[in-house]
């Protein structure tokens, strides 16, 4: 392509709400055949709200919310923010944790009011040899089957409850997926969240390839595996946990509404965070490069 055509393409991109790092990006965009979509914050709004509070027998719901909310208040994760906000609403003020540590893709742990507290995936509790009792495991499974994300809460070596949060699928996501398919792309949903939740979201937007329960540092390996299969992969993401995968993909598209880490790692930024613009980007590059050949 001539430099002039690429500049015109780049300028047209800006009008569409696509920031392009360099003219060469349009070239890689044209060859893409697979689009990997992060779930939380990309396909869904990422604005979650606290839904159910299930506490173990003998455990006070307010205490559960206060201890879990206290730790989550210190975390930037969208799930954490929903739990902290819900806890403040339902239980009043939150104590400041004496100690706090976030475990990527698993949850948070720390010390609150002298209690060693864990909030996150069941996997996180298992690392401390804590199992969910049957009633809590059943409540969690039922919520997940309905598409809610459930996190477990434990303190002082025992599981104490399950909190669920729900996040809405963006109104534009299904149309975006349909548009990507029309352009010949294979959409794949990639998430650290639970399989049941991931499948429920995938069904809503029309994706049938789901890769769930992937730890943040393993998202890169998923991209590499798809590339090894001979696929040319675009990745769309918003989180700190997507940055490495965005950099590894043949084309990284960052949501403009996402984190700085994702925006820095991507080749393109979808300014308004509208997934339909990912399809516009592919169409634009085909048009820009196709007309000149
Ligand atoms: P995604 O890939 O969809 O953006 P993440 O990798 O950020 O999701 O998170 C994966 C899972 O880890 C979440 O669904 C949740 O179960 C758990 N998790 C991560 N951070 C937290 C947190 N601060 N509090 C509770 N659970 C968390
Ligand atoms: Mg995300």
From TrEMBL:
It is found in: Cell membrane. Signal peptide: none annotated. Belongs to the cation transport ATPase (P-type) (TC 3.A.3) family. Type IB subfamily. This is Copper-translocating P-type ATPase.
